[in-house]
Amino acid sequence: MAAPTVTAPAAPVRPAPQNPTRDAYRWPARVFVLPGLLIVAVLLYLPFVWTSYLSLTEYNGLGDPEFVGLEKYQAMFADAGFATSLRNTLFWVLGTLVFPVGFGLLIAVLAHGIKGSFWYRVPFLLPYAISGVAVGVIWTFILQSGGALDEALMFLNLPGADLRWLLDAPLNTFVMIAAATWQGAGVNALLFGIGLQSIPKEPIEAARLDGASGWTLFRTMTWPMLTPLTTVVIGLSIVGSLKQFDIIWAMTKGGPGASSETLALTMYKETFVSNDYGFGAAVAVFLTVVTVAASVIYLRRQLADAKGA
């Protein structure tokens, strides 16, 4: 007869030990963070709350705002000029993602691995040191009617000398995106170059031994390893394109008429040129919501893809 099996009693479950060090530093850490939170609240949140209130009022900068509810938002969405600004802003977002980011990546990949590659990137990086207004002035000299580009095309007997680069829409928006590309591609190339240098060499060498090269090597190995940096670059590009102002103001001031305005220019002109603070505030609130929503949706999608990988 087999002996009965004796089961040892289960060990009592003890609570996880507390970390007195972490608890001791929790409140001091909050005290140190508090000044930064107050600065953010004063410089960002409170102005946004005040702007949101102004968007519900009729106000010309003098006297007291008169509450009108959602009238300014209704007028904004019914305005044909707002639709043009929204279209041009979309052009800027798409153009900034394709050209400055795309050219920056291309420059970084072509220069990567070349001895003294930094000096190949310097000519593309120099325009980034120039202010947006200066970039607009330079490109206005090139693209204005009878400007440097028209003279060069006429001298070389090439087509395009009769084009009104800054006067016809949406051509004026496209050439201003080209100016922004000239300014921004270099810094994107620098960022992508740093990302390429941080990629470990062992997986790349293993892929080369397996026969991968050229586009296949870049698509299957290099590009996935650049994903974290690409997320940052594209996120910054989206936010920057939604707020683009200085180059457009220096080159066309949103004209002729309002044909090249973006949401940022519409906000400025309605507030400080037309003195319609309520309408300008409504555009500002709409632009803020779009910018935050675009950033959050993009980052959440990238983080979800990273977790699923």
Automatic annotation (TrEMBL):
It is found in: Cell membrane. The chain crosses the membrane at residues 31-50, 90-111, 118-142, 174-196, 217-239, 277-299. Residues 1-20 are annotated as: Disordered. Keywords: Cell membrane, Membrane, Transmembrane, Transmembrane helix, Transport. One of its GO terms (biological process) is transmembrane transport. Gene3D superfamilies: MetI-like. SUPFAM superfamilies: MetI-like. Residues 86-298 form the ABC transmembrane type-1 domain. It is a multi-pass membrane protein. Residues 1-11 have a biased composition (Low complexity). GO terms for cellular component: plasma membrane. Belongs to the binding-protein-dependent transport system permease family. This is Carbohydrate ABC transporter membrane protein 1 (CUT1 family). It comes from Georgenia soli. The lineage of its organism: Bacteria, Bacillati, Actinomycetota, Actinomycetes, Micrococcales.
